[in-house]
């Protein structure tokens, strides 16, 4: 048995762009694949990394470039097509391997990209979220820890860059080497049941409440409830006034809601298909938290700037009467 620790970086379409309007790669288009092979005796073996030249979202998002350090010119010069990258990766993986990622998103994005290129996805099995095994074998927490937090808890000093596919895969492999993966895989179903439904992504500091809602007919009904009947102050349970929803990747949304007696609270939600309806995973943050400050900054940048009407050359300025 061998474990393939997988991590990826992906580009995201700018809101309003052609790719965004068409719903191409809704979570993102992969631009980098990194992986580390971990043997059954928990020995870190060889590594794999490759850059992928995007086909559908060719303009590299500036935020992605800043976060990962990857440049658009670098992708054009060094990147290969996605089918070629996947072919090389599968050859490197070999047979009889179990995939592990830090979080739920990587495999979701991988499967979306495989579908975009009409490539099979059944080979990405079996697959497990290492966060769930980590929680089950440490303090039993249900929230997902950031990779940095898990390294700190295990007193592992990072030696590779963060937000680099191979760097993150390598650090995840170091964490997995401290875990009983065989037992973790066997008990994975129980770990998933302990994980509160739908809270995909590490909580930010200042989170004061979590809750899951089910049974909404569609997105409109779900978001209407989150801004209306279910938008209650955590202290007095009175209805709060919801601010503007700000959209985030992965069907996530946030708004700043106000209680007349207790001030502001940040509401973060994630929508997911749940049978025939919509499930909402809701996080509530203090208004003074860093998450709330990030919302205020995002809301300010999203507000349209006023455009001054240009006077035609033929128009003469109107002079005030004396």
UniProtKB/TrEMBL annotation:
Residues 303-313 have a biased composition (Basic residues). Residues 2-185 form the Exonuclease domain. It comes from Candidatus Avoscillospira avistercoris. It comes from the Bacteria. One of its GO terms (molecular function) is 3'-5'-RNA exonuclease activity. InterPro entries: 3-5_Exoribonuclease, ERI-1_3'hExo-like, Ribonucl_H, RNaseH-like_sf, RNaseH_sf. The keyword Nuclease applies. This is Exonuclease domain-containing protein. Residues 296-322 are annotated as: Disordered. Keywords: Exonuclease, Hydrolase, Nuclease.
